[in-house]
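User: For a benchmark we're assembling, each entry needs the component sequences followed by a predicted structure for the full assembly. Here are entry 17's components. Please fill in the structure.
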Amino acid sequence: MPEASFPTGYQRALVTGATSGIGKAIVLALRDAGLQVIAVGRSPDALAELASEPGVTTLQADVRDSKAFSAALEGLTVDVLVNNAGVLSTRAAFQEIDEAEIDNMIDINLKAPLQLARNVLPGMVERSRGHVFFIGSSAGRAPHPGAAVYGASKAGVSLFCDALRCDLLGTGVRVTEIAPGRVQTQLYRTAMGMQAAGSELYDGYESIQPEDIAQLLLAALRMPAAVDVSRLEVFPTAQAVGGSRMVKTLS
Ligand SMILES: NC(=O)c1ccc[n+]([C@@H]2O[C@H](COP(=O)([O-])OP(=O)(O)OC[C@H]3O[C@@H](n4cnc5c(N)ncnc54)[C@H](OP(=O)(O)O)[C@@H]3O)[C@@H](O)[C@H]2O)c1
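Assistant: Structure for entry 17:
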C-alpha cells in the first residue's frame, strides 16, 4: 500500500543501476512510497524481474549513452533522479591498472551522472520542483588503496554536487549526495570476485545493506521542500577511514 505523498508533490523517479544492490533497493523503496519509478540498467534478466513489479517501468540503457536517455525521456516529467549506477572495475595499484579502466570508471561514475542531470534539470527548474541524488562514496572523501581512479570519480561527483547547489540556488531543486562506506552488494564482482569479496570484505561483521541506503534516501526526500539534505555519509559501525599507517624499511 503506497504511503502518503511527498510534501513536495513528486510523482516520478528515475533510478540508474537499478538491476542490483543499492539501486534495486532504492527502486523498490521509492515505489513503496508511492512514486512511479523508471528503473534503468543493462541486465535483461534483472530488468524483466523489475518490470513485473507494479509501479515500475524499465529502460534498458548504458548510462554512457546520453542520446538513449534524451530519446526515452522526451516528454516525460522526472521529479526525482537517482544517479546510482557505478563500477569499481579494478582494485589494483594505479600504476598497474589497465589504461582502459581510467576511461571506464570516469565515464560511468562521473561523466554519465552529469549528462543525465543536465538532461532532466531544465524541466525541474521550469517546474520549480525536483530532487537529484548522487550516490558517491567514502572513497571520494578519503584515500582508499587500489581505488585512485574510483576515488577521483567519486570526489568529482562530490564537488560537482556542491557547485550544482550554487547554480540551482533559488530554483527550488534539491541536490543530495549520499556517500557510503562499505555496503554489501555486487560492486566488487569484477575487481575481486564475489567469493573473495565475501570473505575479505563482508564476513565477520554486520554490513550495511542496500535497503539501509534506500531508507536514508527516502528520509532526505521526505523532508519539507525548504530543506535540502546536502550530504549524507554513512559507514558500517565496524568500518573507519583515516589514521596513519607506516611502511617501515629498517629492521
Ligand atoms: N557497495 C559499496 O560498498 C559501495 C560503497 C560506496 C558507494 N557505492 C556506490 O553505489 C552505487 C551502486 O553500486 P552497488 O554497490 O549497488 O553495486 P552493484 O550491485 O554492482 O550495482 C551497480 C549497478 O550499476 C549498474 N551499471 C554499472 N555500469 C553500468 C552502465 N555502464 N550502464 C548502466 N548501468 C550500469 C549495474 O547494472 P547492469 O549490470 O545491469 O548494467 C548495477 O545495477 C555505485 O555508484 C557505487 O560506486 C557502493
